[in-house]
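// run 5 | inverse folding | seed 20
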């Protein structure tokens, strides 16, 4: 989980401008947007991705993430009955609700469906209180988690996303949050594809229209307030060679419910039709084995700690050329997973992506005699 957070925050790679010009981005009717290939971690296109905006109910993605974490850590149980507070029951009566009641305890499982499918603001508060004791304490956890994920332009002031000047985020940050939610909690993520949910004899549909329009879409979340406009984070998984490939579209500030769905579908189709995602190296596969000085061994295997993919405009995969840059000489001791250099993927002399390369094994220092001999060799070299 932590490795993915760091990778997405620190290496949220973009296609180089020169290469992106080969595949012009569509015109998107939204204040800001971003399309992320979750498989490679590359941004395929964007407009104002770092513009601060009101996230509305997209805030509930963090509420869900922390609720999933609490269940995983056995602080909550899906079948656990939760007493509904007056504060949760009274949350803005004009906003979206799942209609829980202080007179009737509700299971954590139902609250999750109420949060995700029905976008219930009352469910948000009830889960926040169940996880942290109070919504205020939960908000502290939300902001702590946002910092850990590297969401540099995000701040939360409540668990549901009702308007507040201290509740803000960006398309870039929200794409990272969603990527982590999908990767860290795949079993819970399946809830986001649920089309409707009934609670208290009231059936409400999922507001994500794409669940009915595109069978490859399996989430994620809508949001709307007067200040935010109509927002939608959508995700689809389609075949890519012998495996699946996932894209995440973030559309912020569209003019209507119909528009946010249309623009999101446009982005997903553009990404799948115009780009290929290629697996470069498997986790632990050596890229090369350079020489080591003053070490207990003469070479070190270097590569990646996870399967590594890169996304290229369609038809350019065969033109990719790797260029490895590292700081030589490599002198022991070398800790395992320490950064050794950078692998640059080039296409027609243009930079496509930069990927950090690490030591796949630890190399200890040689004996005093071995170090002395290599010192002489280095001096001569």
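// decoded
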């Amino acid at each position: 989980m932590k490795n993915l957070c760091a990778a997405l925050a620190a290496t949220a790679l973009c296609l180089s401008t020169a290469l992106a010009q080969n595949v012009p981005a569509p015109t998107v009717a939204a204040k800001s947007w971003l399309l992320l290939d979750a498989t490679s971690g590359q941004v395929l296109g964007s407009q104002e991705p770092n513009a601060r905006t009101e996230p509305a109910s997209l805030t509930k993605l963090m509420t869900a993430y922390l609720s999933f974490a609490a269940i995983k850590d056995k602080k909550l149980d899906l079948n656990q009955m939760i007493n509904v507070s007056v504060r949760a029951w009274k949350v803005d009566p004009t906003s979206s609700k799942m209609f829980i009641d202080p007179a009737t305890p509700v299971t954590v499982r139902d609250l999750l469906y109420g949060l995700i499918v029905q976008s219930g603001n009352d469910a948000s508060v009830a889960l926040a209180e169940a996880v942290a004791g109070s919504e205020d304490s939960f908000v502290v956890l939300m902001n702590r988690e946002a910092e850990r994920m590297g969401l540099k332009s995000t701040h939360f002031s409540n668990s549901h996303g009702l308007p507040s000047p201290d509740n803000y985020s960006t398309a870039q940050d929200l794409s990272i949050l969603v990527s982590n939610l999908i990767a860290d909690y795949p079993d819970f993520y399946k809830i986001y594809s649920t089309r409707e949910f009934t609670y208290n004899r009231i059936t409400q549909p999922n507001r994500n229209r794409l669940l009915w329009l595109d069978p490859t879409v399996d989430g994620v979340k809508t949001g709307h307030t007067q200040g935010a406009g109509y927002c939608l984070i959508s995700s689809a998984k389609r075949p890519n060679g012998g495996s699946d490939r996932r894209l995440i579209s973030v559309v912020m500030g569209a003019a209507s419910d119909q528009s946010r769905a249309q623009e999101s579908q446009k982005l997903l189709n553009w990404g799948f039709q115009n780009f290929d995602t290629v697996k470069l190296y498997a986790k632990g596969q050596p890229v090369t084995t350079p020489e080591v000085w003053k070490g207990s061994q003469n070479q070190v295997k270097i590569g990646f700690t996870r399967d590594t993919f890169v996304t290229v405009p369609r038809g350019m995969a065969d033109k990719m050329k790797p260029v490895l840059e590292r700081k030589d000489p490599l002198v022991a001791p070398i800790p395992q997973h320490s950064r050794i250099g950078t692998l640059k993927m080039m296409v027609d002399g243009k930079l496509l992506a930069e990927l950090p390369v690490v030591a796949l094994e630890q190399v200890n220092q040689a004996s005093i005699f071995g170090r002395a001999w290599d010192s002489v060799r280095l001096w001569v070299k």
